[in-house]
Amino acid sequence: MDLYKKIIGRICTASEFVAIFCLVAMFMMMVIQIIARYFFTNIPPGWLEELASQFMTIFIFIGMAVGVRDKIHITLTIIVDSMAKKIKLPTEIMGKILTMTLGIMMSINMRPLFTILKYNRLPGTRIPVVIIYAFPAAVGILMALIAVYQIYDHFKSGTDEEQTRPEDFIN
Known about the structure:
Helices cover 75% and strands 0% of the residues. The chain has helices at residues 2-40, 46-69, 77-81, 85-108, 111-117, 129-157.
């Protein structure tokens, strides 16, 4: 299971680098768009906004996987924290199973979009639309893999407070 944790850690690290690249690229595109709008012409290149919005989409989906890994996604901690330990552990495991199911369903439900949109291209950049929908599918798989490890960690270490911290995924 340590190899599994290392592989997920490497994938998460690579995903974070992609997210950082998307954030920096999005910022630079917006700066270029503002400079082009106010100093050179009244109409900035249309592809800048389109590409920036695609990078924002990628950034948001990677943020979902990071949120699952770091256990900072939306939870009803006030209810779970007030439970007895006997009930708390199964409730947390059920939450991880639901997260895993969500990730798998997110990946599976992208298939019809791939079929419908396989020949479509974005108007400004001519990028195939299917590429944009590949990120939610990949992030869904990553969320499911992280949830599987967290379920294993629940059986090994107990509740969320007793588990190893998310930093253990790194390296």
